[in-house]
Amino acid sequence: MARRPLPRILSNGTAQIARSREHIARSRELARSAADSATDVLHPLITITRGLRRLAGAGRRKWSATPKDRRGPLLFLVASVILVVALIPYGPLLAVICLMAAAAWKGRERTVPAPTGPDDAQAQRLQSLYEALVPYFSVPEDPSPLFTHGGEWEKAFPAHEFDDTGRVSHLVVRYPAYFTDGEAESRARIEQLLHAKSGRGREYHFEWDEEGNSLTVDVLPPLPTDIAAQRFVTAPGETVLGFTDPTSVQRTLPVADGDDQRDVPPVVWRTGPRSTEPHLLAVGQPGSGTTTLLRSIALQALRHGDVVVVDGTGTGDYACLAGREGVLAVECGLAGALASLEWAAHETERRLIAANRARQAGQSPPEDTRRPLWILLDRPSTLGHLAAADGHRDPQELLQVPLRHGRAAGVTVVVADQLDSVDALSDAVRQHTRARVVLGPTAPDQLEQILGAAPHTTPTAEVPAGRGYARLGTGPVHRLQVPATPDPYDDATSEAHRRAVLELLPGRTTPADAALAAAPAVAEG
């Protein structure tokens, strides 16, 4: 039996549907074009209608606001005006023309102009800042002072910006040429005053232009605290201490933030034979993040070198490094700390002798002398107190050789201690640790004493863990936020940070106690 052909309506139904869609789309486009054309043509009528509606609304509001005892005379006055207009020649026509003109003016589309200056509250705040600076930027001998009581702040503050809360976020201050802007005390007084008057709880950056007699004040955004420990894109001999402001450094690093990736400006510390600041000193208040910084440095150092950790706190914060490949020792007791540091001193001497002999023979240094060795010492003041109580030598004395000759031998020393124990540090530690880090809330005079220079920002009273300042040698002072590197064995550590640290740890190997015990004998031989 032959198959019957499909009906025509089914065979070309798809084509008809497509043509119908095209027809509908074309119809919509024509309707939209017609509507736009009609709007352009009827725009005057729309404007007049809108104006009439607004005039009627204004009339109703005026009538509602009129007291009842005055509505009768008002109606009589309106009726008299209408009668006079109706009796004069061409009166109704002129009245209609005036009404249409008023409606067209009232119905026009008006745009509210953007404010060109500060409002009353902002102007009052600027005037308060101006009055507070008068005693510092004026002298009686000045014939035309820029700062006077009751003067105008517009000339002194050529540029200013405010944030959403109404506080100053950017300010340019002009000051007279006789102000002693070259003296640190004078500048500190002005910075402290502007910090107090502009709003506490924020961090300000002060940029002094001594040639142009101007001071630029900017509110710094908070540094990112959500960057976890990871493998940073660095060359051998480079260590990321943390992250800073984009305007402070000329380099960025790609970091992983969950599933996303972003570029952030780092504070990179360079070590090795050609480094000008081969050793680091980190100080801070308890809980400020110095142990986190040492743990972060250890994880980065293990990529290309060996690490010896001496934990003076005895809290086991470095237990995750014990038994790992490249970790020669993790000592918490006094006896083990002394043995490890003594071995490090002999190892430094051995490397120097081997490298010197190789150079005299015209050969490259041995391979075992070129692998970097890192000595991380946390809380040496505590170990020194214990050593003095037991009649032993201070462990810091054993650091003199690695500190003095570590750069040539490929040995890097990192010391961390608390602020109240800085005076207990030995002279060798203070002289040879040219890279400095201060974490946690610190007084400005303490910052300048430790870093050797005052920062160009105002430290706040409350800061997150790992937040502080860093200065490498004689360079500028940078704001610093240490990457989150908590103890993975701590119960308070989040699961994401725990996984991040565990992924960076090298594989486990046999304990290095036997090798460490035999190392001094090898070095002596």
From TrEMBL:
<keyword id="KW-0472">Membrane</keyword>
<feature type="domain" description="FtsK">
    <location>
        <begin position="264"/>
        <end position="448"/>
    </location>
</feature>
<protein>
    <recommendedName>
        <fullName>FtsK domain-containing protein</fullName>
    </recommendedName>
</protein>
<keyword id="KW-0067">ATP-binding</keyword>
<dbReference type="InterPro" id="IPR002543">
    <property type="entry name" value="FtsK_dom"/>
</dbReference>
<keyword id="KW-0547">Nucleotide-binding</keyword>
<dbReference type="InterPro" id="IPR027417">
    <property type="entry name" value="P-loop_NTPase"/>
</dbReference>
<feature type="binding site">
    <location>
        <begin position="284"/>
        <end position="291"/>
    </location>
    <ligand>
        <name>ATP</name>
    </ligand>
</feature>
<feature type="transmembrane region" description="Helical">
    <location>
        <begin position="74"/>
        <end position="105"/>
    </location>
</feature>
<dbReference type="GO" id="GO:0003677">
    <property type="term" value="F:DNA binding"/>
</dbReference>
<keyword id="KW-0812">Transmembrane</keyword>
<keyword id="KW-1133">Transmembrane helix</keyword>
<dbReference type="GO" id="GO:0005524">
    <property type="term" value="F:ATP binding"/>
</dbReference>
